[in-house]
From TrEMBL:
Originating organism: Haloferula luteola
Molecular-function annotations in GO: DNA binding
InterPro entries xrefs: Sig_transdc_resp-reg_C-effctor, Tscrpt_reg_LuxR_C, WH-like_DNA-bd_sf
Domain HTH luxR-type: 194-259
Gene Ontology BP, a term: regulation of DNA-templated transcription
Matches recorded under Pfam families: GerE
This protein's record includes keyword Transcription: yes
Domain of life, source organism: Bacteria
Protein name as annotated: DNA-binding CsgD family transcriptional regulator
Keywords: DNA-binding, Transcription, Transcription regulation
Amino acid sequence: MKYDPPQSRPSLPQPDVEAILSLLSETCKLPSRNAQIRTLMNGLVRLIDAKSWVWGVSVRLEADSLPTWLLHLYGGFDEESYAKFVRAQEHPDMQWLTAPYVELLMQTDGQLTRSRQQTDPDNLYRKSSVRALWEAAGVEPGLLSCKVLNPSTVSGVAIYRRPKEPLFEERERLITHILLTEVPWLHQPTPEDVGVPVRKLSPRRLTICNLLAQGMSRAAIAEHLGIKESTVNSYTKEIFKVFGVHSQPELMTRLHADDHPADS
């Protein structure tokens, strides 16, 4: 069954359409894919009055298990708030909070963009134990836009506002959906030599892997996660072994090997 957008959805006013076209034009002129993604997402955040964004690829996204995200790029977070965000993203409660969206996504062959109130109409998030972690990171779940690339890989973008700010409305959801549907270069499958190792990582090792991938030091990771640096060192050695690398720069190169020149 395909996802069928509501027939009564509002059309966008001309200024929004022009802003989307302008942002796409600006983005297409940039020399690399990562530069394109950062410009696109920073522009989108400004357009819909959001705070932060994250783009990544999931190599294990199932309704009955915790999503496994390899986070590539982000904006609107400092180092400390990003580390707290990663902890929130990988909290066990995120499995049942995202399950309705994942179930619908698996039935969709295109881009699926949903607001929090669409995937959580009963507002169960407010009663969840993960809420405190999200608020500590300075954000709350808002919009999620994903595309299934193959049976084992999903490319996704999440956009956030600050706690207690208004939830995203249909206009913001529609702008996000239209804009992200127009950039096929955003969605590239993760190579199997990366995807397979990621599936072997436990939630805590994946958390540390995502922080290492952003260049965060082991001392900073230990401080942000509230664990000993020796524990981080131990996890890091295991992560290096899984990926077949010997240093953090090697790991970063391996995980971000898709920062290739933009398509002409």
